[in-house]
Every structure is written in structure tokens, then in C-alpha cells.
Amino acid sequence: MHKTHIANKRGLKSNGGIKRAKISAPNAHKTKTLSTIKKINKQSSRNFKQSKPYTITSRTLTTQNSSFVPREVDFVAVNKELMEGVGTIVHRSIGRQPSYFSPFALLDHFFLEECSLPRGLGFHPHPHRGVSTLTYILPKPGNGSVKHQDHKGHEGIIGPGDIQFMSAGKGIVHSEMPAGDDAVEGLQLWINLHKDDKFSEPDYQDYSGDQLPCVERDDVNAKIIMGTALGAEASVVTRTPVHYVHYRLKPNANIDHPIPNHWNAFVYILDGDAHFANEPLQCAKSKNTVYFKLGAVGSFEPIEDRNDFNRNQIDPNTGVTVTAGADGCEFVLVAGEPLNDGVTLPRRRGPIVMTTREELDQAFKDFENGVNGFEGSKEFVKNWTI
User: Fold this and answer.
1) Which of 90, 106, 107, 191 has the CA that lies 20 to 30 A from 78?
2) Alpha-carbon span 226 to 213, nearest angstrom
3) Is 142 helix (H, G, I), strand (E, B) or coil?
4) Span 228-259, pLDDT tens digits
5) pTM of the model
């Protein structure tokens, strides 16, 4: 069976070829950053304390649990710097390389420089349908805030460490703009909605940073945004089961994160470098995305009963193992259940993700005409001000 066929059955779509990272040499991947972002990163640097080094035996890392079976790395991708919205720098992984990784449609690491001049940087009013988005403002000293407004009258501000989870359902037109003059750095993850949920009513869940579970254990710090980790569980409710955890590891520390065998999983590295089970002598660097193979008994079978929660029971002895390098590592680990809703690959155009091309065309017609979920959106766009 060709590798591309296997990937597509996993809901993994390549977009014109994947640029794979050369991950063995330190500082192999450098990206342009604004001076203001460099200032924020410098302010947020952590003073890690040295811990016991990990052991390499026959190219295998030791893990916290001797019976834990870690997943192998499938590939490591170098994220490309793009411009989105108005003056917003993003480092995009999913959504570009690969273009889809079920159930995830996009992951952007976004940067907004100091916003006093010029005014108007950010994401002006735009439509969504058929997808959920989770925006996470990274908890860094000096990081700014983002203001959200939509055509249904919702608005709010999320700051460092806060999240907003929005399920667009049948339609939302909203804006995401800096709430002040400070530079802003964060992550936005798009989770595709099952074909049966794409015309549901929109929904919001906002949580401040202190409402998210945070676990400190030995040389590991974990903030649980979705799902479970280290015995703690997040409060965010999702239609598709997902784990989303922000980990900080001190030098040479490691973490075993159990994941159901049939879920897709990846790690996005924010800072430092990390080693993985099948390639312990190589490391992935900042702004690399590491994609993992399925567990030993992963299944591609369609889900007959979406209310059968036993299908997602976690085996505590299998999942992803990450080991930090000599300077420690900060990353997000994200995993989710592939939709397996009979749709091989979704249709996406800009911020709208649908099942068929006809649904995609209809979504933009509905947006242009202000109907079928977009009622009142024309007035919102017309009256919207920075």
C-alpha cells in the first residue's frame, strides 16, 4: 500500500509536498521575528534547574513508566512564516503541511507587533462555518490581549494564559483584534466539525488562565487546556474528543502522555528542543511540528455510535513520550479522535470548512446574502470599527 494512501486514511492530506525538518543540528531552523517579539521572548526566558540526564540504550529513551510503549515519530515539519489578516505573522503547520490532520484543520502560531502604530493590525471581520476554533494567548510576561466581537453581539477580551473556544456551527462573522498597544503572541487551533454538526448553533466557552488546571510534578509543568493530563481534567466541552496540553519540561526531563490508540497526535515546539522515542539522537527545534504514527492497534473503522464513550478509553501504557534537551523544552501536545464520518477530506476555503464543494459554495453565498446563520452580519461588518 502506498504511503500516501495510508496517510489519507488517517485523514492526513499533503498540500503540495511536506518540507521535512533537518532536526539533528542545533539552530538548524531559524525564522524571522519582529524585534518586539524577541523582546517578549527574552522577558519570558525560564531558568531551568539541571535534572538527571536521560539514558540512551540502543537508541531508545528511558521513560517514566517502564511498561509505557511510546508512539514512533512519523515526520517532522518546518513551519512556514506567512502573513495573515492585517499585519499578522503566523507560523502555520496544519493547514499547510499537511493541509489536514483529522480532526484538525489548522494550527497557527501568531504574532502581532506593538500595535500603537499603525492602527488596525489583526483579523478584521470574517466568516466561519463548519469548524471550531480555540485561541490561546501564550502566558508570557508582557504579552498583550485580544478582543473578540461577532455579529450576534458577543464580545470579550482574552489575555495571557486565557483561552476562547468557539464553535462556529452554521455561521459566525467575527473579528479578533489587539485589545491594547502591546505585542501579542498566541496559538489558534481549528478543529473540524463532524458533518452532522456543521449546521449546529454557534457556541462559546471562555476560560481565564487561572481556571485551567495546572499540574507541577518533578521537572514537568502542565497546563491542561482540553482533555486530561497528569490526573487533571479540563472543563472545556468539545464535540470531538481532544487533548490539548501546554507542557514545560526542565532540562532532560521527560513526560509520558497516554493517548487512545486510534487518535491522531502531534507536538508543536514553542521553545527549546526535544527528543522522541524512535529518534533519541536527533531533536526537533522551536517552530517544528512533530507528527506521530498511530498506536499499535489504531483503527480506521467508521464510528457507528458517537455516544459510545468506551471507544476512547485511554490505555495508560501507550501514547507519546517527549524528552527535553539540555536547555529544557516548551511545547503543546495535541491529540484528537479522527472524525471518520465518511468524508475522506473536508473542503476548506479560507475560514470555512465544509464537507463538499457544493456546501462550501453555498456557505459563501449565505454569507454574501446574510442568510442561514449569517443574518445581521452585513450590518455588523458595516458598523464595525477598529
Assistant:
1) 191
2) 10
3) coil
4) 999 999 999 999 899 999 999 999 999 999 99
5) 0.80
